[in-house]
Design a protein that fits this description.
With 199 residues, this protein is of the alpha/beta class. Helices cover 24% and strands 21% of the residues. Strand 6 (159-168), helix 4 and strand 7 form a beta-alpha-beta unit. The structure holds pyrazine-2-carboxylic acid and zinc ion (ZN).
Length: 199
């Protein structure tokens, strides 16, 4: 996925966005993403790089009410997952989130789903206020919340770098993850690997 010439050297104005690294999206969880746990060491290294330079880190979380419209028992496409304040909605314990991580909860209303961390949250304003112009993105799942979060960031005018080794897909349809990465690249995102992030 990575291409030559796509290295990014971190500087002021950069932020890390970690998308939905929650127990329910990990192996054993209610909506497990295959190999979802493999991204955690990669994201921990990204966290260390950003922390070292005191660059901000934002962590989104799916934070649904028990009767959320996306759940199968409400006619939606997904099993019950990431119900607010349940263990499944908690961030993966292995993810080393710094204390000052900014947590962004989304899709909290029963009748609306939101795959993008920018939708119905104050993430856009927070990034704006912090003068963020470039974001590095990793998390779950490539073909849903990562995809739409990246497209939102691009629409907001951000330069976006997606960690190909820091995302995994649900892949309900074969290759959905690869197609999602292609969509992100076509929309203007840089698809990189952790090794391309320089401090
Ligand atoms: C997600 C399916 C349902 C995600 C959230 O975080 O990608 N996927 N809710
Ligand atoms: Zn959800």
């Amino acid at each position: 996925m990575s291409r030559a010439g796509q290295a990014v050297t971190l500087r002021e104005g950069d932020a890390l966005i970690l998308v939905d690294v929650q127990n329910d999206f990990l192996p054993g969880g209610a909506l497990a993403v295959d190999q979802g746990d493999c991204i955690i060491p990669v994201l921990n290294q990204a966290i260390a790089l950003f922390s070292k330079q005191r660059l901000p880190i934002y962590a989104t979380r799916d934070w649904h009410p028990p009767n959320h419209c996306s759940f199968a028992d409400q006619g939606g496409p997904w099993p019950v997952h990431c119900v607010a304040d349940t263990p499944g909605a908690a961030f993966a314990p292995a993810l080393k989130l710094p204390r000052d991580t900014v947590i962004i909860s989304k899709a909290q209303l029963p009748d609306y789903d939101a795959y993008s961390g920018f939708e119905g949250t104050d993430l856009p304003k927070k990034l704006d206020d912090a003068l963020i112009t470039r974001v590095v993105v990793g998390g779950l799942a490539t073909d849903y919340c990562v995809l739409f979060t990246v497209l939102s960031a691009l629409l907001q005018g951000m330069e976006v770098y997606v960690l190909a080794d820091g995302v995994r897909a649900v892949n309900i349809k074969a290759h959905a993850g690869e197609l999602a990465l292609q969509r992100m690249r076509t929309a203007g995102a840089h698809i990189i690997r952790l090794e391309d992030v320089k401090s």
